[in-house]
Amino acid sequence: MTIGATVRRKTVAAARQWRKLHFKTLRKQLLTPHAGEIRLPLVSREIDQAPQPTITIKVETNNEDLLRQCQLEYFGFFHPISTNNSINSTNSEICIHVGPPKSLGCPYTLTSEADNFTEAVRRSEEKSVWEETDIAEVPHSTRWLTQPLIDGFISRRVTSHVGLNTETMSHTLMMARKLNLGLSPYELSPYYFANDLLSSWGIFSSTESLNSEISEDDVSRLVNLAHASAVLPLYRSVWLNGSALCDDNGNAVLILGSRKSGKTTLALHCLANSSSSLRLIGLENFHLAPSTAVVNRSTSGDGSIFLLMGIPSSAKVGIGAIIGTLRPNPILAQVSQDFNYSTSIIHKILQNSENVIWNMASRYQVNISEAFGSQRWSPTWFGRLKGIVVLNWDIQELSLPQSSINPKCFQHQTILDKQKTLTAIAEKSSTALFKGHYLIRSTYDESSAFEALDSILFTGKGSETPPVYELTGSVSFDMAVQLICRHLLKDST
Predict the structure, then answer these.
(1) Rg of the chain over CA atoms, in angstroms?
(2) What is the pLDDT of residues 7-33, one digit of tens each?
(3) d(CA 346, CA 445)
(4) Close Cβ partners of 59 (under 8 Å, ≥ 6 residues apart)
(5) Collapsing DSSP states into helix, strand and coil, what is residue 397?
(6) Which of 22, 28, 129, 443 measures 20 to 30 Å from 100, CA to CA?
(7) CA pair distance 163, 440, nearest whole angstrom
(8) How many other CB atoms are found less than 10 A from the CB of residue 485?
(9) What element of type H or E holds 218?
(10) What is the mean pLDDT of residues 324-338?
């Protein structure tokens, strides 16, 4: 009881101290001498001859390795800091700092809350096992914990390690002692922080070791948050999970579907199958906005003209895409840095059914420029949407013999049928269609985004709204690639 009371008093005092802190004061304590900027200029054939708007994200860090990492990840779009602050730019900034703010330290409140949350998950799980109730009643094992500032916040993601009451836990603990390893009851992210306007973001770690906390995923998440918080309110866009492709003729195609439906893999197959005129707007997610969001446009703006925005990034694909079990794409295995299996191991993997391979959890990183050449990105694009391809394949059929493959393609004609198709994706999972994040929910809530998407896509007459193609039945990347590259984007092969 004494220890608990002491912890509570310390937590309350720390929370009060941080609530009095200005965002700028925190930012000044994080010295970042290395800088560059990500510039995402608008590409379009529909814009009058006028200065084209650019989305610019300023990147500052205290670690040269992190700066080089950004240069490689955003190759072709990462530049030295420009002194020309154009009025046509949409600006945001991020800070990546290895180590804590020295004079301030780290918020004690987030550490104590992580302990409390982990203990609550453990007790709920223990009760569930004891009473033999559904484990789904245990609180979700991941949560973002937030410490408010005067004009901003600091937040940290905590993931509680569930499964501590399984029969194998005693064996796990014994092995950990033999290997002299400590088992943490939870995993903590670096400290994320932002101002109230969400125009300035950053992360810092609790130690000065680069390998201890800040990962490539953390940097990527930070860039995506900065980009999203800039474009969502300004262009009245919706943030979608999926891929977006475009060509030199001013046409684009969207690939949507439920989780693990092959959206990213299909986009990579299209890149491998086409000429350099086919480019990516967004690979795993993108923003869709109405044509009215762009000024100086030469078109009157019918129902098929849209603004699409994404972030150039590396792909993360499953082992089936790397090996090419359903459609060969050998360049993926050649350029993937973390795929180093021997031939014998690959043969053993191939002994599994396609369904088992499809659902394997391992993901491998592929740099798009290295795999398919430079100039394969147009992350800010304005033009005509030629079609929306919805992947609604029956993944379970992958366990059947190849002779039973029966893929089907339906083109939905009426607005009602198009709406029903997208609604079906959204109803499968709250995160299947719309992307969002807890840290930007003050300006954008993905749970209420469907009305906005419906308004953007289907406000015109039926003939003016973009066509929707639904792929059902057996998985067939061959049919999907042919639909996109030879039918919708005809001149891209």
Answers:
(1) 24
(2) 778 788 888 899 999 999 999 999 999
(3) 43
(4) 35, 36, 37, 38, 67, 70, 78, 93, 94, 96, 223
(5) helix
(6) 443
(7) 31
(8) 23
(9) helix 216-235
(10) 86
What lies within 8 Å, CB to CB, of 100 at 6+ separation is 106, 191, 204, 205, 206, 207
Cβ atoms 127, 33 nearer than 8 A: no
For residues 97 and 113, give the distance between their C-alpha atoms in angstroms, rounded to a whole number.
23
Per-residue burial over 16-49, b = 16 or more CB atoms within 10 Å of its CB, e = otherwise: eebeebebeebbebbebebebbbbbbbbbebbee
| pLDDT at res. 49 | 57
Specify which residues 55 forms β-bridges with.
Answer: 40, 90
Residue type at position 448: S
Nearest to 484 by CA among 170, 324, 141, 245: 245
CA–CA separation, 333 and 327 (whole Å) = 13
What integer is the mean pLDDT of 397-421? Answer: 84
What is the Cα–Cα distance from 350 to 328, expressed in whole angstroms? 14
Which of 321, 320, 479, 475 has the alpha carbon at shortest distance from 404? 475
- Cα(5)–Cα(17) distance, rounded to whole angstroms? 18
- Residue 157 CA to residue 190 CA, distance in Å, equals 8
**Locate tokens 């969400």: which residue?**
198
